[in-house]
Design goal:
Elements lengths: L4 E5 L6 H12 L1 E5 L18 H6 L2 E2 L12 H17 L3 E5 L3 H8 L21 H11 L1 H4 L7 H11 L18 E7 L2 H17 L2 H10 L12 H8 L5 H26 L3 E4 L5 H13 L1
Parallel strand pairs: 1-4, 1-5, 2-3, 2-4, 5-6
Length: 297
């Protein structure tokens, strides 16, 4: 890397995307999404994609590149993003990776080497594994997916392992050595009470902005891929199947989002070397200034 490589990570609803845009303007950088569900078209509100206006201000990559039924593994993400980093660097620009999907980002920034072809697996490959053990494997290799897949749903677990790159269950290296020499990982964290209130408000705003209609369109198209395991969509699918009422589904979205945020923070603190910024009492500009100081160091 001739230019700067910055990753901005942390739990959902901590302001990562807004910060990334401001940092990109200061560094003359382009942004690569590190969110496991923003790849998919038609999933805009529930994945909190940045607006079209923001994307006109700063170039974003890996947003709206697949249909919801398409498969896209962690190994695929690693290959694509490393190529994107080379392309952006060759243009004389810095790179910012932003998102909360930990394993996806770590696969790029650390020495992950996936074994085998992630597309060559089906149910028979896992026939000797108990369902509980399969879910444990999924939690180990892709906690983002494991968080939204029921531990007793064997079929969904297997599909999730395939999406994660099922033959990446074992890696030649454990992902502890940085892949890039000059990279900084900045994490945003909030007081838990404030974070949970922000998550609840964010879900209310998503509902007001049309999340129910967005999800209904996917439901009516009978989309059944792993993309529909995303929080916000899977709960509303239950509502459309008349398994619950709308208010209960919304409360489930809030609860699952809060639980997911807690798991994200734990994962990043255990798995990656992150410079953390507590944004509880900071404005966006104050967070930006602190971020730029860390980058300059």
């Amino acid at each position: 890397m001739k230019h700067k490589l910055v990753a901005i990570v942390g739990p959902t609803a901590t302001g990562k995307s807004d910060l990334a845009i401001q940092v990109a303007k200061h560094l003359d950088a382009e942004i690569i999404s590190g969110d496991a569900f923003q790849f998919y078209k038609g999933m805009d509100i529930g994945t909190a994609k940045v607006s079209v206006e923001d994307r006109l201000q700063v170039t974003h990559h890996l947003i709206d590149i697949f249909d919801p039924d398409d498969k896209f593994s962690v190994a695929d993400y690693q290959r694509l993003v490393r190529l994107k980093i080379q392309e952006i660097d060759a243009k004389g620009k810095s790179v910012i990776i932003v998102g909360g999907s930990g394993l996806y980002i770590k696969s790029v920034l650390y020495d992950y080497q996936f074994i085998g072809d992630s597309r060559s697996h089906d149910d028979t490959d896992f026939s000797t594994y108990p369902t509980e053990e399969l879910h444990d494997l999924l939690k180990k290799n892709d906690p983002d997916l494991a968080a939204v897949v029921h531990p007793n749903n064997r079929r969904r677990i297997i599909r999730s392992l395939e999406l994660a790159g099922s033959n990446a269950i074992e890696t030649r290296k454990k992902g502890k050595t940085p892949y890039y020499d000059d990279c900084i990982i900045i994490g945003l964290e909030l007081d838990r009470g404030q974070l949970y209130r922000r998550i609840d408000s964010r879900v209310d705003a998503m509902i007001e902005n049309g999340l129910v209609d967005e999800t209904r369109a996917l439901f009516e198209k009978q989309v059944s891929s792993q993309a529909m395991a995303a929080i916000g969509y899977k709960e509303l699918f239950g509502y459309f199947r008349k398994e619950t009422d709308l208010n209960t589904a919304i409360q489930m979205i809030k609860q699952n989002s809060r639980r997911y945020a807690k798991r994200q923070l734990t994962w990043f603190k255990n798995q990656m070397q992150v410079d953390w910024i507590d944004v509880t009492a900071r404005s966006l500009d104050e967070t930006l200034q602190e971020t730029l100081k860390l980058i300059k160091k």
